[in-house]
């Protein structure tokens, strides 16, 4: 049987990680995989997470199954964090999932049941796992323009033009904040225009929010998601806790589906529980319990918010330092976009050949599309990267 297998496409980011590991150069710089790293290059367990885990270890009296949708307290805490009061609780169905990836997968499976012919529209570019999963599920897929290769901002005119061709019932995947891989984001007003077109066309939004708190702050980063939630009868929201709680390996995420009324919510909730049952039965609980413990305890929550703010500001400072250093070296403002981008990533906007040159000549690793993980930098490596960018002729 197994002899019939053919090799699947390798995940480029994970392959790059493996390459970095075997590079013997001691001054190599890893700007590849999307994991937050502090100045010393470690991905810390957040203080509030440690404390929540200590409490869970001391107090937890059973490891019996939760529910198919996960712990309802997690659902309520995440609904508040992401959606606040943008839509009435009775309209929101939710299931805990293994990470944000699990939430996206379940969202697509839900769409497959409800609207099997719907085309899934993805930004060009987007996180590579989006098209990979859509393709794997055999769903129709299309792209809308997103990145302006010249300004390194959003190609807003191109995006609007492409969204004008969306058919009724199609699903448009939008990043809630901190677009991956570009770092370029729509303003609130631009998103209002996108919403206007989608409403006119009868399209349904699927929001992927994986970096709430990494861009402009916890509340601001949720504004676009909340605006979308309140603007449509139906909308799907896949949220990840991997980055903002630093619980990557615990696989913690949630899929929320906004229904038009409580009856539709009940049917959707039942369907989501069914989908969890088919795919993995009960979702992982530990990370979700940690997140719930933090979000519902005022002291832990305040400490988590403080640490998340420190993280966010660290990345903003690095962005500014890199933009300033490149301004100094090139005597131009053509790299100012780095300071305008938000989140963990920026797309430099150069060719795969020059990305390879940076790797070969300078030991600087970034994804082939020139996505850099800003958190992979520190005060010492910023000038090294800037110099390498200039000497590579980017
Ligand atoms: N969406 C986007 C845009 C992401 O960048 C990521 C993480 N790389 C995810 C979803 C999912 O993350 P996870 O499954 O680790 O929670």
TrEMBL record:
CDD domains associated with the record: AAT_like
Regions annotated as coiled coil: 301-328
Domain (Aminotransferase class I/classII large): residue spans on this chain: 27-389
Pfam families, per the entry: Aminotran_1_2
Cofactor(s) of this protein: pyridoxal 5'-phosphate
Keywords linked to the UniProt accession: Aminotransferase, Coiled coil, Pyridoxal phosphate, Transferase
InterPro entries per the UniProt record, alphabetical: Aminotransferase_I/II_large, Asp_trans, PyrdxlP-dep_Trfase, PyrdxlP-dep_Trfase_major, PyrdxlP-dep_Trfase_small
Quaternary data: Homodimer.
Annotated NCBIfam families: PRK09257.1 (NF006719)
Family of this protein: Belongs to the class-I pyridoxal-phosphate-dependent aminotransferase family.
Protein name: Aromatic amino acid transaminase
Species for this entry: Yoonia phaeophyticola
